[in-house]
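FAQ

Q: What does a record look like?
A: Structure on top, sequence underneath. For example:
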C-alpha cells in the first residue's frame, strides 16, 4: 500500500540537492512578490481595492507555487511542510495571535500611561472596527499565510534537514531579511533589524510547534495592528511613533511571544538535532 503521508506520485530518488531547492523557492518567492508589487497591472497608489487585489493575487500565486515545489522537488509528507490538521491549526493560530496581541495591548497601555506616545483616531469606532476586520483578511492573504508558508514552512524545513534547528532558524531569518531588502520594504538598518528579529521569533514558533499555524497567528496580529497604526491605510495617528513601535509593536510582544512558546513546548524543543 502506498504511504499516504507522501504526496501522490512521489518518489525519493531524484530530489534536487537541498541548497538548489532553497535557492529555487527563495528566488521564485522574490520574483512573485516583485510581480505583485511592481509588475502586475494594479495601481501603485494605495486604496482599499488595490490592497485587496494585491492580497488575493499574492495568495493565488505563492501558495500553489510552494505546494508545487514541495510535490515536485521535495516529495516529502505534506505534514513536514508545516500544515497541521484544521482542528490543531485553529487552536495554534489563536495561540500565536494571543502571544502578540496581549503583550502588545499591554505595551500600548504602558506607552499611553507614561506619556511616551499619544494616539488619535482618524475614524469613528464603527469605521475603525470595519477597517480592522478587513485588514485581518487582507494581512492573512497578503503576508501572514504566504510568507509563513515560504519561509517558516518550505525554507526552514529544508534547512532543518542538514542544520541544527537554531542554525535553520537563523538561516531562514537571513533569507527573510534579504527578501525584505530586495523588495525595497526593508531599505534601512532599523527595518532590516525588525525583519531579522521578527523572523527569528517566527522561526522559534515553527520549531516549538512543528508547524506554521502559530506563526501565522503571530504574524497576523503584528501586521494587522501595525497597519492600523502606521502606513497609508492607518486609522490611528501616533505621536511618539518611534518609542511606540519599539515598545508596543515590537520589543514587548516579540520577547513575550518567544518566551511563552519556549515555555509551553519546552518538552519537545531540541535545538541541536537536524531533522533529515
Amino acid at each position: 500500500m502506498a504511504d499516504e503521508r507522501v504526496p501522490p506520485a512521489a518518489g525519493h530518488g531524484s530530489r534536487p540537492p537541498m541548497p538548489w531547492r532553497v535557492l529555487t523557492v527563495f528566488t521564485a518567492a522574490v520574483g512573485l512578490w516583485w510581480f505583485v508589487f511592481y509588475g502586475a497591472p494594479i495601481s501603485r497608489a494605495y486604496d482599499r481595492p488595490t490592497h485587496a487585489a494585491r492580497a488575493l493575487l499574492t495568495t493565488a500565486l505563492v501558495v500553489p507555487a510552494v505546494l508545487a515545489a514541495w510535490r515536485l522537488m521535495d516529495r516529502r509528507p505534506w505534514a513536514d511542510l508545516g500544515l497541521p490538521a484544521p482542528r490543531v491549526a485553529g487552536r495554534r493560530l489563536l495561540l500565536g495571535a494571543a502571544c502578540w496581541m496581549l503583550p502588545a495591548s499591554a505595551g500600548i497601555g504602558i506607552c499611553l500611561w507614561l506619556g511616551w506616545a499619544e494616539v488619535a483616531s482618524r475614524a469613528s469606532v464603527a469605521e475603525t472596527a470595519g477597517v480592522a476586520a478587513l485588514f485581518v483578511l487582507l494581512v492573512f492573504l497578503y503576508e501572514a499565510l504566504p510568507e509563513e508558508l515560504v519561509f517558516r514552512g518550505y525554507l526552514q524545513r529544508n534547512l532543518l534537514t542538514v542544520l541544527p534547528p537554531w542554525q535553520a532558524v537563523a538561516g531562514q531569518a537571513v533569507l527573510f531579511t534579504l527578501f525584505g531588502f530586495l523588495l525595497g520594504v526593508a531599505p534601512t538598518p532599523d527595518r532590516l533589524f525588525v525583519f531579522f528579529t521578527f523572523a527569528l521569533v517566527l522561526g522559534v514558533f515553527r520549531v516549538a510547534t512543528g508547524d506554521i499555524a502559530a506563526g501565522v497567528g503571530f504574524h497576523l496580529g503584528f501586521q494587522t495592528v501595525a497597519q492600523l497604526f502606521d502606513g497609508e491605510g492607518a486609522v490611528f495617528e501616533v505621536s511618539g511613533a518611534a518609542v511606540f513601535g519599539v515598545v508596543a509593536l515590537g520589543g514587548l510582544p516579540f520577547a513575550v511571544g518567544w518566551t511563552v512558546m519556549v515555555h509551553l513546548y519546552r518538552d519537545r524543543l531540541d535545538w541541536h538535532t537536524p531533522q533529515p
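Q: Is there anything notable about this one?
A: Confidence is low (pLDDT under 50) at residues 1-6.
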